[in-house]
């Protein structure tokens, strides 16, 4: 395989529908909540060069895009996906590393954050220097949280006034140590137990 990870251009607009379908199918198979994307929104991110795409000789292999909030004070990476044909090859980490480095270049003063239920994504974030934080340390921009409306767990988020959900918040602050991000020990057992506790609390009938 000859996979390249590059900043999106006009020639990549044709992959928008496939990206959306792959993201939605992945969420259904995992049984997790997801904020749905439209091809139009994905293309908009491509047009503004706020996205990276992984291609294997023209075949779609993976994708991730950048969102900025509060006039660039915060940046988030969303829609991280790897096509089923390219999973278990470490591609997700490569894509995440690429979009992370690109974010530091394009938004050098922004705090980079994310919310996720995926332990694999948490591990990648931790390796890049993110640390788990309460939602109060993330953006307060209502537009960001309204993006969770299509997630199956949105009612939980609303009931907790955007302060807690099944997702775990993670944050990287470039001002802490920008040239050598601190590593925060990742304990998959602890985070998995936290995830199970949240599910027991929030999903109980």
UniProtKB/TrEMBL annotation:
<dbReference type="InterPro" id="IPR016181">
    <property type="entry name" value="Acyl_CoA_acyltransferase"/>
</dbReference>
<protein>
    <submittedName>
        <fullName>GNAT family N-acetyltransferase</fullName>
    </submittedName>
</protein>
<dbReference type="Pfam" id="PF00583">
    <property type="entry name" value="Acetyltransf_1"/>
</dbReference>
<feature type="domain" description="N-acetyltransferase">
    <location>
        <begin position="11"/>
        <end position="151"/>
    </location>
</feature>
<dbReference type="InterPro" id="IPR000182">
    <property type="entry name" value="GNAT_dom"/>
</dbReference>
């Amino acid at each position: 395989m000859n996979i390249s990870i590059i900043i999106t251009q006009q020639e990549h607009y044709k992959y928008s529908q496939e990206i959306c379908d792959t993201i939605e199918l992945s969420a259904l198979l995992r049984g997790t909540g997801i904020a749905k994307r439209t091809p139009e929104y994905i293309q908009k991110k491509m047009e503004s060069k706020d996205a990276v795409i992984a291609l294997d000789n023209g075949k779609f292999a993976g994708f991730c895009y950048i969102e900025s909030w509060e006039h660039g004070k915060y940046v988030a990476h969303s829609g991280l996906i790897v096509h089923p044909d390219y999973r278990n090859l470490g591609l997700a980490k490569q894509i995440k590393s690429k979009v992370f480095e690109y974010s530091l270049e394009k938004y050098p003063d922004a705090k980079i954050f994310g919310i996720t239920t995926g332990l694999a994504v948490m591990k990648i974030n931790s390796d890049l220097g993110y640390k788990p934080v309460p939602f109060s340390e993330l953006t307060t921009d209502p537009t960001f949280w309204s993006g969770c409306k299509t997630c199956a767990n949105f009612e939980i988020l609303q009931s907790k006034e955007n302060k807690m959900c099944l997702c775990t918040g993670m944050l990287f602050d470039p001002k802490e140590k920008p040239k050598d991000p601190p590593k925060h020990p990742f304990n998959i057992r602890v985070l998995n137990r936290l995830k199970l506790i949240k599910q027991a609390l929030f999903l109980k009938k």
